[in-house]
## 1
Amino acid sequence: MGDENDEAYGKDKIEIIRDWVTVGEDGYLTLRIRTYRCSMTAIHYVNLVYLGYENGEYRYELRHDARGDSEGWVADGLIAFDLNELAPEDRSAVTLHLKWEGFTGSKTADFKLTFRHP
């Protein structure tokens, strides 16, 4: 949606925590995330926005909409995105380039996304 991504998907800060559950395997990108919150009942929305395919990489942006619940204490969560539609015919691994707005500015990471072989 280009210039409308902020309104559609939010622009609240979010961090990706590097640990054993943050991985791209079996066609899923699983991320341990961290953000701030002040309500245990507020719903946060996290979206993976497709930016295109460039230089042999699928490019995505992780977007966070805290819906006004972006202060208070630190809270972690797990999210997983089904990306099996990216699997090439031979089910070989693909590179996923991810960018997001962290607490200290813009961040990026590259993931090798593997797929389950039939």
Note: The beta strands are 15-17, 23-25, 28-37, 45-54, 57-65, 73-82, 94-102, 105-113.
## 2
Amino acid sequence: MSEEVQDKRRRLFLTAAATAVTGVGAAYVAVPFLASMNPSDRAKAAGAPVEADISKLEVGQLIRVEWRGKPVWVLKRTEDTLTELATKIDKLRDPDSNESEQPESCKNSARSIKPDVFLAVGICTHLGCSPTYRPEVAPEDLGPDWKGGFFCPCHGSLFDLSGRVYAGVPAPLNLDIPPHEYITDTRILIGSSGGQA
């Protein structure tokens, strides 16, 4: 074999070896860089659906569950409450929730999948304060027409027990209804709606 052929083979071998080493080095650099673009476990958990056990929820009781860093209220309503919801339509800004965010499964007068169990994100749609649950009827500070609901102490916005905003208050929209589904009769998966988170 001539010296020229041997030199050519050496160059081809060295070029192939250098290319392979460069490729492996690029992979070692690229893998951690690309992995750093994935959300952290903490971020994934923050957006993950959460379960709420309502087996011990009593009529008139409200519990709070944290989902995506926000309070979600779960309220067990009475039959009287459900009847009362239909009587004050003229006092509400958006009684049919045409402008507010809610899942398709909750587009009804009760704004819920099951009429007696109501879920809402507990953040006022005005400036993000957290309204208080005021179930009492006709308290002195809210007047004789108050039949129970949610009162935002920051700027005085009022919501009924379906999270619908009253007309003439600062809040522009009804309370948001989070996506949710029932796993069983007593367990709700908040943040998931038919397998979609």
Note: The chain has two domains: 1-38, 49-190.
## 3
Amino acid sequence: MSADLLIDGLSTLYTCDPSAPGLGEHRQVSLAFAEGELIYLGPPAHAPDAETVIDGEGLIGLPGLVEPHSHAIWAGSRADEFRRRLAGASYSEILEAGGGILSTVAATRRASRQDLAENGRARLVGLRAHGVCTVEIKSGYGLDPATEARMLEAAWDCGDTVRVVPTFLGAHAVPPELKGDRAAYVRQVIDEQLPRVRHLAENIDVYCDRGAFSLDEALEILSAGKVAGLKLRAHAEQVAYTGIAAAAARLGATSVDHLERLPDADIAVLAQYGTVAVLLPGAQLYLRDIPPPVGALREAGVPMALGTDLNPGSSPVHDPWTIAALACILQGLTVEEAVLGLTRNAGLALGRPELGWLGKGSVADLALFRPPAGEPPDVAGLVQQMAGHRAVVLVRDGELVFGA
């Protein structure tokens, strides 16, 4: 069988295949794609003929990266907030004073769908350049039915850039017009926003924390989302412990994210229910926070994914490789854990187990990288050297996106 695309003689490939040990490392291997699928992975001598052939000598191959936690659609700037945090103001203080998320809400409400999509697409092109094929995009900067829907529509408009996984995050904060009336806003999220956006989203998320939503409110919103057919996720145990991580896991959440203040007893619950822990070291760095309990998560066997948390305020990070290095340096992940966090475990966090690995049953996504100057073709160099690594070849669904 002839192929559409052949990557010939790739120096090193990491398939991240769950059936293989470690990262599924192969040396001197070829890959062939046809009709949107991976049809060959093996020795170069037996590779099929192909219409397009790319020489893989000296390159590192990985599954197309997966971004499992982003807020990539927004309008406005939070640079002034950055100055305030440098001067000593906390994230919660800024939020409670009407800044933070609420500042972005005002700008996003004024923006058109076209403007939101144009800015979002530019951010996604940046992520794609680093080898990302799939990006989860949250709403949550509208806080009213019309703007939440417009944000998700703009996210779908960006699907020509990357594979988009849209998440409804109406429960991000209480809008200023309700003057802190959380009960009234919870009803709006469930009764007005959710029916309007359910066909635009795959997941529902909620920000349960000090200054945001209580445990009972968060569970009411997630339960309504579950009835509407959405997969569940939660911003959990970041600023203060609330119990949402364990409660969301029991409700069937695919992931809980942040987790700086996650206790051991709740880690056991995540392990019991197979819930993925999404770690966000960019937010930890920008907020000067403590790390999540990585050692205890590892010991319990909880899968750990990594996200940029790309947003305008608390984690304006556009590079997953920077996140991988920070996860190792600030949070104690190994190189192998960081790579799985950007690939297979990130797909699991989205409830999309076909993402982030290469093999029978996976999507046909591949990213090729040159090692840093003077380094061997080993993924450790990509993680260790915080150099904003860019893919030289990207394949999504078996189709060449860029590179030759």
Note: Residues 260 and 292 are 4 Å apart (CA to CA).
